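Archive maintenance. Older records in this collection stored only the sequence; we are now back-filling the structure field for every entry so that each record is complete. The fields below show one back-filled record exactly as it appears after the update. Entries are processed alphabetically, and Aminopeptidase is next in the queue.

ARCHIVE ENTRY
Title: Aminopeptidase
Organism field: Cohnella abietis
Length field: 436
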Amino acid sequence: MLMDLFDRLFPINRSITGDGVRQSLRILGEIVPIKQTEYATGTECFDWTVPKEWNVRGAYVKDSQGRTLIDFKENNLHLMGYSVPFRGYVSREELMEHLLTRPDLPNAIPYMMSYYKESWGFCVEHNRLPEFTDEWYEVFIDSDLQDGHMTLGEGFIQGSSKQEILLSTYICHPSMAINELSGPLVQTMIYHYLLHRKNLKYSYRFLYLPETIGSLLYLSQYGEQLKQRVVAGYVVTCVGHGESFTYKRSKRADTLADKAAIHVLKQSGKPYTVVDWNPFGSDERQYCSEGFKLPMGSLMRTMYGQYPEYHTSLDNRSLISEEVLLETIQMYIDLIETLEANETYECTHIHGEPKLDKRGLYPYLGGTRTKEEQRQISFITNLIAFSDGHNDLIDIAEKLGEMGKELNKPAQLLEQHGLLRSLNVERYNTQYDLVN
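Back-filled structure field:
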């Protein structure tokens, strides 16, 4: 299903506004419910303003013999993003001023855009420049750039708590695989999994936004509420390629999001790298800005800018792997299950060790134990020993070299017997949503 979905989405011309975004959200909406909200051109979001809406029907460059040299229909990366409408004949000299290439990647069509300065341009493989030998060329760009809307997509699952886990991905790039579609595909599958999971502790919010300005727009509307509710979150991007994982910490670096992600990666046995937050990258720049300081990290594979095909036509289906996508989905699910299981407990029996056998928590008979029996005894005794109101289950699991979620059931069992008391914030059943 993943690659079928990829094949439907890949040809769509997405930008920060326009019908391509809406069409993509409708397709993803066949898998999970995604609400689309429109914000008009001119809407202010802090230091930024929603631009005009851009849509394209076609664009090409023909030589003097009428041969098509560049065609938007063959690859939507050929047209510079937000190119204004244009029709006419231009000289070779003028055309060259509007042709954009990557000399370092001569076989690639570069991804270029001009959102806030009206212009037009075509992107082409650098090694094709010798083909442009005529004196005059026909240029045709059938586009609209006019007042319209920016579209934000959002999904929400109500848990038993008003506290939220936030997942955010962007949906604003044209035909690229790792740097565009891997994020929405993985996030949608996580969303689909959680829709069918019962008894969620946290509520979950899923954002599908134009990168940078989309997150700024959302924060301008709901940032203060997110500050009160989000306990952990992740920007889902660049998750479809590479043998290892990369985790980018939140700006605060010591949040529950960071702790849980690094714990799960360590226990997974998969190769991984942890990098500190920096002001380059994706929407974690906005979520972690000083006005919000949300606990938002980013769990990736090969991250943006770290592979040569980045922001070019070479970032295509050949680079993305369904196996890697599925592995990433499972890593996120393990991360979420760890967050769901995590609690902070306080041991109620502080004068020596409690007698466990009389509570049925320890075997009456001594002798050789199976590995599983030894493991469960270890869980119980360590939970009693280290549940001091400060260590949570992840902390204790780190001491044992186990996944935090494995301690959840033993902890609940001890709680049932009155030996542990949860210190987590009370949960709420009130229905709510930031977007009404």
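Update note: The chain has three domains: 2-51+149-341, 53-146, 344-422. The longest strand covers residues 136-146.
Entry marked complete.
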